[in-house]
Amino acid sequence: MKSRLISQFFAIACFCALGASSAIAEDAANVAVPKFDPKDMVPLVNGPNWVDLDGDGKKDLVMKSRLEAGTAHDFSIYSFHFHNPDGNGVEHFNAWQVIPFIKPLDHKRPYGEYQLYTNEGADCVLSDIRLIVNRSKQHTKTYAIFAERENTLGYAEDENFTFYIYRLVREPEVRSFQIILSFKLIKTISPTTKYCGSNEAFLAEFGLPNPDPDSESRR
Question: What is the pLDDT of residues 75-85, one digit of tens each?
Fold first, then answer.
């Protein structure tokens, strides 16, 4: 009897989760593409980048580190962290907590990805991100755009890019992983124009220039 009740509970929970994810996906499909202003873009350079991501007046941390592979395919790793010294009501808290990137329908990674990576070649950068923090008197809106292109023809060829637009949100409830802030995927865009590198793709599609002088020579 107990095992049957447990099975029924998990069946209902999975059904509700799938329903909620479908609703989120449907909402995301109807979300208009935000207008991004280049002046709101936060340059992310190698090392610690101190940014108030959620508008609470406290500096949060975006870490950009590098893995040198000894080839043309070195890459950067981004991770986002926020300062939460009061614990927000969470027991056994730590003051610094990671901000994951969550795709609503990614059931294999329901708590998201904790790092994002670039994919680079000698001529072009195939994947990278841009961080947008729009501040007003009423609120702060923070977006992260991750660009990623196909690589069927090689690193120096023009191919299709996909842009994943995430918005920073505060979780409505603290779940078992104690996620308080997360970047939620709100829109996916696949332009028909092909580009070799993310720098030229970001500039052409969103008017966002390359903020990192270390990769200025590559598209």
Answer: 999 999 998 76
